[in-house]
Amino acid sequence: GGAKHPMSHLRAHHLAKSYKGRRVIEDVSLDVEAGQIVGLLGPNGAGKTTLISLICGMARLEEGTIEVGGHDVVRDYRAARAMIGLVPQELALEPFSTVRDTVAFSRGLFGKPRDDARVEQVLRSLSLWEKRDAKVNELSGGMKRRVLIAKALAHDPEVLFLDEPTAGVDVELRKGMWAIIDKMRARGVTIILTTHYIEEAEMMADRVGVINRGKLLMVDEKDAMMARLGRTEAHITLAQPLATLPPDIDRFPVELEAGGTVLRYRGGDGTGKGKAEVAELTKALIGAGIDYVGIDTRESSLEVIFVSLLGDGEVPQ
């Protein structure tokens, strides 16, 4: 329940970090409330992993302050770190340890008492129970990824970081991970995931932040972001090319393309206003005696928004 964490779970203010003389994190601030899922979206090398390393206390903070659950990550590292679960990108696991031991060990690491029942629960939730006695190095890549998640969950963290959780993961596991994330959210766990898969952010996150070249370009409620930056685009193929547009058509946000054979509409605001306006536009075309043979309408996704924010930078797949 949200009652026991009235405060925000994560407060990061004015963080900065340089690496080999280059700023990799530049004045980043992020506040996350308990039980929220934040997707940090950005191309590779944008600074997503560095940001996580700073918050988890694995990289030295040069400027700024970070608190997790009210604990300062620098001054009160152990208490802060015990609240955090991290599923890293790299498969860093003890090759000769069994699955069960690997996960159980993680509890002790963060000062939690031994709890075999809890470890079993975590393993079962990730379909790892059958593999509990297998050595980590005998597992497939997908199974190893599950062990990493189990390790991160073993000490019941309240803030969970998933660094590119589904990069290079098969669709089955990806769906499984999404299901786990949903369950954790229901328990009130705060989740921050980095990704360059737009659909992952669109599907999972309540809030989306766009990070590029070490700067956090914006963090917003996903729906607000779609509303603010979402657009409707329609291509109307005309039966005969037009040289100019009659005033009745020109009042819409449209332009002629492809030698006057295509009328392109760009408008709306992510609230469905665009669709209504396209309908109005088609009526106006009929009223003006302009014949059309096809309409192709598209609502912009986070992808389009992302590209427009990054300008001509690298665009995620």
The radius of gyration over CA amounts to 24 Å
Class based on secondary structure composition and strand pairing: alpha/beta
Span of the ends, CA to CA: 36 Å
Write out the strand line-up for the largest beta sheet, numbering strands in chain order. Answer: 6-7-8-3-9-10
Low-confidence sequence ranges: 1-6, 313-317
Instruction: List the helices and strands in order.
Output: EEEHEEHEHHHEHEHEEHEHEEHEH
Helix content: 25-40%
Indicate the proportion of strand residues.
25-35%
| Count of extended strands | 14
What average pLDDT do the residues reach? 84
Sheet with the most strands, sense and barrel status: 6 strands, mixed
Count helical runs: 11
Can you tell me the overall shape?
elongated
Question: Which SSEs are present, and which pair or pack?
Answer:
Layout: E1 8-19, E2 22-33, E3 37-41, H1 48-55, E4 63-68, E5 71-72, H2 77-82, E6 84-87, H3 99-109, H4 116-125, H5 141-153, E7 159-163, H6 171-186, E8 190-195, H7 198-204, E9 207-212, E10 215-221, H8 222-229, E11 232-238, H9 247-250, E12 254-257, E13 262-267, H10 273-287, E14 292-299, H11 302-310
Parallel strand pairs: 3-8, 3-9, 6-7, 7-8
Antiparallel strand pairs: 1-2, 1-4, 4-5, 9-10, 11-13, 11-14, 12-13
Helix pairs in contact: 3-5
